[in-house]
Design goal:
- This protein has one domain: P-loop containing nucleotide triphosphate hydrolases (Rossmann fold, 3-Layer(aba) Sandwich), CATH 3.40.50.300.
- By secondary structure, it is α/β, with parallel strands linked by helices.
- The protein is globular and about 50 Å long.
- The model has no long low-confidence stretch (mean pLDDT about 95).
- The strands form 2 sheets. It has a 5-stranded parallel beta sheet with strand order 2-3-1-4-7, with helices on both faces. It has a two-stranded antiparallel sheet with strand order 5-6.
- Strand 5 and strand 6 form a beta hairpin.
- Bound molecules: BIS(adenosine)-5'-pentaphosphate.
- The site of BIS(adenosine)-5'-pentaphosphate has 34 residues, from helix 1, helix 2, helix 3, strand 6 and helix 10.
């Protein structure tokens, strides 16, 4: 931990484990977690104009129009805690145009992480996923069951986690993800996401540690 403000992008198919890893990264590194999926779901549940626009796209597993999502992200990135704590972008950029937008604003990460998980595993993870609306914690009925009855009773299912919708989200991911990679080819790190969450985190933590060490070393020599 320290004053190095890390800038991290995490990408991967639906249910590849982005949200799960982000919780662990934030706990250790204190970064500001910006999840476009979470921001959009919050807009939908409070019934805002943005939420009304976004809901149809989300329910069909399509990307919400770039401008809507980009405005949300840029406005969050311009808040003062970002300089102090660094950021962790989860699920953004998700199209070539979103990546270009950040490039034009000279917003670049230190690292671009992609979690790789086979399709059949992704579908099982989505269908078994449950969320705790009180703590925001992500569970899985088989892989990561809730700790007690009280939590179990309040868990909710995401409306886009049905078999059909997951397949459509996966198609959308495949159509867009390749187009982003060239922008971050020098920062790209693919990680095997098909192992226990703690093991995936060890791999990510190793990479982030290395960046922190290099950044503070270069600061010392300046
Ligand atoms: P978003 O919320 O970003 O959904 P997503 O990309 O489909 O990703 P998920 O949240 O489903 O999965 P995750 O990778 O976080 O996995 P998790 O950790 O929960 O986006 C939703 C929608 O919003 C999009 O479809 C789109 O419409 C819109 N949107 C968002 N961003 C946008 C953008 N930039 N532009 C336009 N539109 C945008 O894990 C999944 C499950 O697996 C859990 O049950 C978990 O417990 C379990 N699990 C996690 N890790 C492991 C492990 N290592 N082993 C076993 N199980 C595990």
């Amino acid at each position: 931990r320290g004053k190095t403000s890390l800038k991290v992008m995490i990408s991967g198919a639906p249910a590849s484990g982005k949200g799960t890893q982000c919780r662990m990264i934030v706990e250790k590194y204190g970064l500001v977690h910006i999840s476009t999926g979470d921001l959009l779901r919050a807009e939908v549940s409070s019934g805002t104009e943005i939420g009304k626009k976004a809901k149809e796209y989300m329910d069909n597993g399509k990307l919400v129009p770039d401008q809507v999502v980009t405005d949300m992200v840029v406005s969050r990135l311009s808040q003062p805690d970002i300089q102090e704590r660094g950021w962790l972008l989860d699920g953004y950029p998700r199209s070539f145009s979103q990546a270009q937008h950040l490039e034009n604003l000279k917003i670049r990460p230190n690292i671009f992480i992609v979690l790789e998980v086979p399709d059949d595993v992704l579908i099982d993870r989505c269908v078994g996923r449950r969320l705790d609306p009180v703590t925001g914690k992500i569970y899985h009925l088989k892989n990561y069951p809730p700790e007690n009855e009280e939590i179990s009773a309040r868990l909710i299912t995401r409306s886009d986690d049905t078999f059909e919708k997951v397949k459509s989200r996966l198609d959308t991911y495949k159509q867009n993800s390749e187009a982003i990679l060239p922008t971050y080819s020098d920062l790209l790190n693919k990680i095997d996401g098909n192992c226990p969450a703690e093991v995936v985190f060890q791999a990510i933590d190793f990479l982030l540690q290395k960046i922190c060490e290099n950044t503070s070393a270069s600061k010392l020599t300046k």
